[in-house]
Design a protein that fits this description.
By secondary structure, the chain is of the alpha+beta class. It folds into 3 domains: 197 residues, no CATH class; 359 residues, no CATH class; 111 residues, Bacterial OB-fold (OB fold (Dihydrolipoamide Acetyltransferase, E2P)). 55% of the residues lie in helices and 8% in strands. The protein contains 30 helices and 12 strands. Strand 10 and strand 11 form a beta hairpin. The longest helix is centred in the first third of the chain and has 35 residues. The protein is globular, with a radius of gyration of 29 Å. The termini are far apart.
Length: 811
């Protein structure tokens, strides 16, 4: 662990401010402010904090601190503060008036941020929405502040991803940023007297000579691939069947329309198989066209790759020469997020794509390690099926994305034409486009589900081949961690998750949701602490079933074991946490509690088995009734519709049993003082489960896509002082409420400073089920997770009852 000397904190904070790393800047500058209050360096630090607060989306804190500096005994500081405060007042008039009113009423800015509530009748007259900058406003304050305080040379800026993201010794880690204390007058970014640390890479060595890791049995992998193809076909077939029923039922209800009755008599299987075969054969060229047209794919000349990573260039040339194959097509995506993917069902038509962010943020040997994983996909032949899956999921995702863009355009036109004859026709078209976009996203999520197991499995094989090819397991560990860090930084920089990052997730080496927490917390706590859950939680494999990538901790532990097998020091100290714990290794006395917790966690799905048991019991009652000559109940024997109807009833019972433990009342006292925990502290519990929630209050900036592409809350992320956290929103009636409700939607708060209250949950990734989102001006969006769960439970109960009433006992 490398510790920055205290006399360099100011320079380091100002350098971070220049580079746009505002969280790091606030951490160092606040430490200087606390240790050298009213001293020249302390005043410089406060001036820098004003700039960092504004650029980080906290203008209220910038205004409050700037007002404090106007009372400074130093004339130059007072003059600078007065000029800067005038600029802040010009750019944020509503927040400026609110801050002044709060201070005059002896209420601290931190308390105002905590509740985020301002009575509407007391709000300033201009507060009708989120504050906006005036046209022609002064330049951003951070430039003036940096020039005013930067009178001493700062350290040369360096790439923060390549510099030092990982700390080897978690015992010495001290969190730089903590959740604001509601009782304090100002958020404490760095505890007084604490040491600020810079986590460092070990730069652990690679093998100079190594033996092969041994032959791998690929039969299970091929069986998974075959099973994935079968399940994918079944999902498409059932989607078509249900769609025909829904469309015909709707047309039958509507006047002036006739259902497509002939579709009931057409066997769709041959058509589905032929369509999938055509898509599979054309998948390399179709995917390339999609990437070029919608994501800006460009060729990557070997000379350019060689200039950035000579080792990757040599690796590709040597590998394909030894195999007697031509070099594959190399391309680059112009996005800051580090991505890598391979598609093409044969080695001769394979394409390897990386992003510009990956080339910029990874070192030479790390880029080569990622290219080696892509070679693993080609050699293991998992690219046979993956291009088809990628294409099948890309089609509905493109419908979602393009319909969302069209919907945003129509929404603007609706606002412009309100009160005219064109308003209602445009409004009708807008809602139709909204439904199309939503259906496209839902279909994308459904069609990716059959590939999740296959997607998780294939990465272990490609990692193994990459290690054998390069002899550099530590380089691959660093590469994967830097990808996570780069993904988090790209989301913070862009203010949202890029469409390419989400749509191509099945093909990439690291899932972007894992990158949210792992990539944004590496400055706050050791990576080993965050990854411990992946190694020791007894339910981790069950909870990973709904994820596209394997547990990062397990994956990196395997790479570290390869390093140890070759007598190399691993990049991460995961081995000190022990081997990944299997459920059978847990003491017998703990098994009952573990299974009880798991049963409650998965109660809705275990309820299906309960429903099946209820159906079997009813069958047995029917047998007894037949023996006793009770003809009124004898129809229960062997009726399949009885079992079908009991399944949703069992799901309903399980959902109702889980609601209260899952959404316990949030007590305000648990959100204050010593009861609060920072994000790193919440993630440090290796045995946590989603059902073991923690009531939380987080403050920060709401990130995500704008417009109808985020009406379902697909991309809601809170940028707190200690990291990024995913947010889940639910309206009273679920997706329909999110689409058509007139209440304040979270998407309307994107880009604003908010206070989020809800239930923190820890699974493979972490998230918060929202209770409310509130801005400093009192604009509030409420979520209704318990009510929506109740609605789902009742709907399934009614569905089961209808099936039994309509079909059971009718032969």
């Amino acid at each position: 662990m490398e510790t920055i000397p205290e006399d360099q904190w100011l320079d380091y904070g100002l350098t971070a401010l220049k580079e746009g790393d505002y969280l790091t800047a606030l951490s160092y500058l606040s430490a200087v402010q606390q240790s050298q209050a009213d001293q020249p360096d302390g005043l410089k630090a406060e001036m820098g904090m004003v700039a960092a607060y504004e650029r980080h989306g906290q203008p209220d804190q910038a205004i409050a601190l700037c007002r404090k500096l106007t009372q400074s005994p130093t004339r130059k500081v007072r003059k600078w503060a007065e000029e800067t405060l005038a600029g802040l007042a010009d750019r944020y008039p509503d927040i400026f008036q609110l801050t002044v009113k709060v201070e005059e009423s002896s209420q601290s800015p931190a308390e105002a941020n905590l509740t985020g509530f301002v009575p509407l009748e007391e709000a300033p007259a201009k507060a009708k929405g989120s504050p906006t900058r005036k046209t022609g406003a002064n330049p951003p304050v951070f430039r003036d502040a940096t020039n005013a305080i930067n009178k001493t040379p700062s350290p040369t800026p360096t790439s923060r991803v390549n510099q030092a993201p990982i700390q080897a010794d978690p015992a010495q880690a001290i969190s730089q940023v903590r959740t604001p204390d509601p009782e304090s007058t100002q958020p404490e970014l760095s505890p007084p007297g604490s040491k600020i640390y810079t986590p460092v890479w070990k730069q652990a060595e690679r093998a100079k000579q190594w033996r092969p890791l041994g032959k791998v049995n690929l039969i299970p992998f091929w069986l998974i691939q075959l099973g994935t193809a079968i399940v994918l076909f079944w999902v498409i077939y059932m989607t078509y069947t249900v769609s025909v029923i829904v469309v015909n039922t709707t047309l039958d209800i509507l006047p002036f329309f006739l259902p497509f009755w002939y579709l009931y008599y057409v066997n769709p299987v041959p058509y589905i198989l032929v369509t999938l075969a055509v898509l599979w054969l054309a998948s390399p060229w179709l995917l390339e066209s999609i990437l070029k047209l919608f994501y800006g794919l460009k060729p990557l000349p070997m000379a350019k790759l060689s200039a950035r990573s000579p080792e990757a260039s040599r690796l590709l040339t040597r590998f394909f020469r030894q195999k007697g194959l031509a070099l594959p097509s190399l391309s680059v995506l112009p996005t800051d997020s580090p991505l890598a993917l391979t598609y093409g069902y044969l080695p001769r038509n394979a394409r390897i794509v990386v992003s510009q962010g990956l080339l910029d943020q990874l070192a030479d040997d790390e880029i080569a390690a990622i290219y080696a994983t892509q070679l693993g996909h080609i050699i293991q032949r998992d690219v046979i099926l993956m291009p088809l899956i990628a294409l099948v999921t890309q089609i509905p995702y493109l419908i979602y994305g393009q319909a969302a863009k069209l919907g945003d355009y129509l929404a603007e036109k609706c606002r412009d034409t309100k009160g005219t004859l064109f308003y209602y026709p445009l409004l009708l078209v807008f809602h139709l486009i909204l439904l199309v976009s939503t259906a496209g996203y839902g279909l994308y999520r459904l069609l990716r589900w059959p590939a999740l197991w296959f997607s998780r499995s294939r990465l272990f094989y490609s990692d193994r081949l990459a290690v054998e090819t390069t002899g550099n397991p530590n380089g691959l560990i660093r590469a994967l961690l830097k990808i996570a860090i780069g993904q988090a930084e790209a989301i913070q920089k862009q203010g949202k998750t890029a469409l390419a990052v989400e749509s191509l997730e099945l093909l990439t080496p690291m899932g972007h949701q894992v990158g949210l927490e792992l990539g944004s917390l590496y400055r706050q706590t050791s990576v080993e602490t965050v990854l411990k859950w992946d190694l020791v939680n007894p339910h981790r494999h069950w909870l990973a079933l709904n994820h596209s990538h394997p547990l990062t901790g397990t994956r990196l532990w395997q790479l570290a074991s390869y390093a140890q097998q070759w007598r190399l020091e691993p990049e991460l100290d995961l081995q000190t946490l022990g081997n990944p714990v299997a459920l059978k290794e847990i003491p017998l006395g703990e098994h009952f509690q573990i299974w009880q917790t798991l049963a409650l966690q998965g109660a809705p799905f275990f309820g299906l088995f309960l429903g099946l048991a209820i159906g079997v019991i009813l069958w047995i009652l029917g047998i007894l009734a037949s023996l006793l000559d009770l003809w009124q109940l004898s129809w229960l024997v062997g009726d399949p519709w009885l079992l079908v109807g009991c399944l949703p009833i069992g799901f309903s019972i399980g959902t109702l049993l889980r609601i209260n433990p899952f959404f316990r009342d949030i007590q305000p006292s648990r959100l204050r003082g010593t009861n609060t925990k920072s994000l790193p502290e919440l993630l440090s519990d290796p045995k946590a489960l989603p059902i073991q929630h923690q009531p939380v209050l987080f403050q920060g900036k709401l990130l995500g896509r704008r417009g109808i592409g985020n009406r379902l809350g697909q991309d809601l992320i809170l940028q707190t002082e200690s990291g990024l956290i995913k947010l889940h929103h639910a309206s009273t009636v679920g997706p329909l409420g999110s689409l058509f409700s007139q209440a304040t939607q979270p998407v309307s708060l994107v880009g604003e400073s908010v206070t989020a209250i809800g239930w923190f949950r820890r699974g493979v990734t972490a998230w918060v089920d929202l209770e409310s989102l509130r801005t400093p001006l009192g604009k509030t969006s409420y979520s209704h997770h318990p009510l929506w769960s109740t609605v789902i439970a009742l709907a399934f109960a009614l569905l089961g009852a209808y099936i039994i009433w309509a079909y059971a006992g009718r032969g």
